[in-house]
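> Could you send the Subtilisin-like protein prediction when you get a chance?

Sure thing. Input:
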Amino acid sequence: MLLSFLQILAISSLVAAAPSRRANYVVHERRAAEPVTWMKSRRLDPEKVLPLRIGLAQQNLHELEDLLMSVAHPDSPTFGQHWSPERVAERFAPSEDTISTVKLWLINEGFRGDRIRVSPSKGWIDVNATASEVESLLDAEYHVYTHPSGHEQIGCESYALPDHIREHVDLIKPTVHFLHRVPSPIQKRSNSTTKLGGPSQFNGPKRNGTVVVSPTPNPISTCDQSTTPHCLRELYEIDYKPQVPHKNSYGIVEFTPQAYLGSDLDMFFGLFGHDQDHKRPELVSIDGGVVQTTNQLFAFNAESDLDLEYAMVLTNPTPIKLLQTGDLIEGAGFDNWLDAVDKSYCTFDGGDDPTQDGIYPDPAPGGFNHPESCGIIKPPHVVSVSYGEDEHGLTEHYAKRQCHEYGKLGLMGSTILYSSGDFGVAGTNGFCPDGKFNPMFPATCPYVTAVGATQIPLGKTVHDPEIAIETFVFSGGGFSNMFPMPEYQERAVKEYLENNPPPYTAAQYSNSGKVRAFPDLSANGANYVVAIDGSLVLVYGTSASSPVVGSIITLINDARIAHDKGPIGFINPLIYDKRFSDAFNDITSGSNPGCNTPGFPAAKGWDPVTGVGTPNLKKLLDKFVKLP
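Output:
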């Protein structure tokens, strides 16, 4: 009896001393924000089969910023020598070492080789596994979450990977990414600011209820009260007639069910256009994207009407490509339109996220039951997107993976513009998690150009200095909680922080002085006269300023192409360069309040409210056309 007891005791001590099988595991992703209206109802059935997708880390991403600067910095000997999609895909594809390491890990965990599938582009590894197998593999615990509407979804709060595997994996699905939206019939969403299928927080234009009666086409004396294309031409010296419009390309991204009405375009063109009666944008249907006309309300038509009316008038006769994304049933998100302009992103980089993006084919009745739209269009020279979502609701792996794609598009010669948000330093609808400033993504990605908003002060004219917008909205701006500061803005941001030290703590914002700051530049975003649902109304927001800046860059590209040069591409290194500073109207008044604070003040030079200021097309043309 004594011997047996000692033997048992010895064996027990050995077991206790042996390292846990998960001792070398490290948490790879944790849910960014817990769901508000969803309840954790039960553990997931251990026999439930999950389609596990492992997104492999790409190689050479540490070179992306330098490579982008080599084609975008004015002092680079290879300025403007943009890369082909094939060259980009080859440079950043996952390495064979990454593929073999992850496969070996799965085999060692008990998965037979015939269960493991590597995607054709070698960027994803797919394996169907039971919930029990996945929980063991990822040291995770899956639950079913239930919404009061009856909808259910599955997920885990976090998952872990062996330390030697983490460097080879970007993210794994399904895991922590949570669908905070609840799919519902489109007819029930008429007054919702959360858009079916699109980014989880819809940052659309705002209105004050004002209906414009009998506007004058060229009312420059009242531009402080109503902004029209003529006001913008006067403000930013937009006096250029496109020379080679059909060699140029400008894309506007919209997410179904957001859609324009042809009658609204005609109404606007009748007042402010020139020979544009019945002119329409070129529809590029992405994943079943449709210009729906069944639902005709501000929430459905305002964004698309605004974007297209101003872009088409300011760049006329340049054809506008409408990148209409997502079907009526499921909708879409940022990854879907990126899939359409870069086939390699679709197959190995993006990995559409069911919490943010549409997943196609869509087998639901009436859905787009066809393969997803991969590489169906060459990236336009300029793309404007007036949508965004809070950084707070995203995991870093998801946001950074997408941000890298914007860098690749810049490497290929595209200018990607995103509106910076309409709630100052706060997130959507003023959301400030634990009182902390909540910046807007993708505007915080260092490889996009973030556009803030300004306005003409009441009682002033187009010839007076603008101020940061303070009517109904406040220009989104501040400092990212995810992305490091790119080299191109170090000097400008350092000067701002030294001359205008913010009175906030690290508990309120990322105050290291070493993170991405935004916006990069701005344009008027107040009192826009827009034809919506048969009436002329006033709207506000960075949703207006982004397509206007896109129009200005499009005109610059036309001039460059007419001089046998390529599109300007990624513009951030140029606009932060002091040699180009006099081509921007510096905004020094106003701020962007939020989170129960005054926000940041506008100031001389760059500031986190209006960026480097508003563009002057006449001066930019002279400088940008002289570049190689």
